[in-house]
TrEMBL record:
Keyword terms, alphabetized: DNA-binding, Transcription, Transcription regulation
Taxonomy of the source species: Bacteria, Pseudomonadati, Pseudomonadota, Betaproteobacteria, Burkholderiales
InterPro entries with a match to the protein in the record: AraC_XylS_family_regulators, Homeodomain-like_sf, HTH_AraC
Location of the HTH araC/xylS-type domain: 69-167
Protein's UniProt keywords contain Kinase: no
Record has rRNA-binding as a keyword: no
Gene Ontology terms for molecular function: DNA-binding transcription factor activity; sequence-specific DNA binding
PROSITE patterns reported for this sequence: HTH_ARAC_FAMILY_2
Protein name as it appears in the record: Transcriptional regulator, AraC family
């Protein structure tokens, strides 16, 4: 092919991609399983192209923004985990420098800032919807402790987790 094509990342493609990149496959049949998943992924992508489910006339910028959307989705799915840039480099096949530059250009924030914002939003939701202790909320959103979560909530939202819970509870009762 002489022109780049951007295929839409369907749920089938995303699932095959996630499975083919997993590190927890057992040693037995590991290479064969990876080969089969890679082949299925390639066939799914070719099928999308053959059926015309592509984004025609895409520019390098549009490719970059599609990558940023995939990065955002990955970070949101794994917000409760540490995500080293090396992991993103291996997962997306693009250098750390290029990933960080594209992400900042596309979102206006660093990957770490985006992950912290996502953790904050998840914590707010858990604080509003559950009676879980703050330490448990911290654990579930990927914070190292209740104190670390409290610092992050104060820094991002300007209030404490307990004040947020009280405020959210009042707004729900109204």
């Amino acid at each position: 092919m002489r022109t780049p094509i951007l295929a839409r990342q369907t749920s089938a493609i995303r699932a095959l991609q996630d499975l083919s990149l997993r590190n927890d496959l057992s040693d037995y049949g590991n290479a064969a399983v990876r080969q089969a998943l890679s082949s299925a992924l390639l066939m799914q992508c070719i099928g999308e192209i053959v059926t015309g489910k592509t984004m025609s006339g895409t520019s390098p910028r549009e490719h970059g923004m599609a990558l940023v959307a995939d990065l955002e989705a990955f970070v949101i799915r794994h917000a409760d985990q540490a995500i080293p840039l090396d992991t993103l480099e291996g997962r997306f096949g693009i250098s750390r420098r290029h990933i960080t530059r594209l992400f900042r250009e596309g979102t206006g924030m660093s990957i770490g800032e985006f992950q912290q914002r996502t953790r904050y939003e998840n914590a707010c939701r858990l604080l509003a919807e559950t009676d879980l202790p703050i330490g448990e909320v911290a654990f579930r959103v990927g914070s190292e402790s209740g104190a670390a979560l409290a610092r992050a909530v104060r820094r991002i939202g300007g209030h404490s987790p307990s004040a947020l819970r009280t405020t959210m509870a009042r707004s729900v009762k109204k």
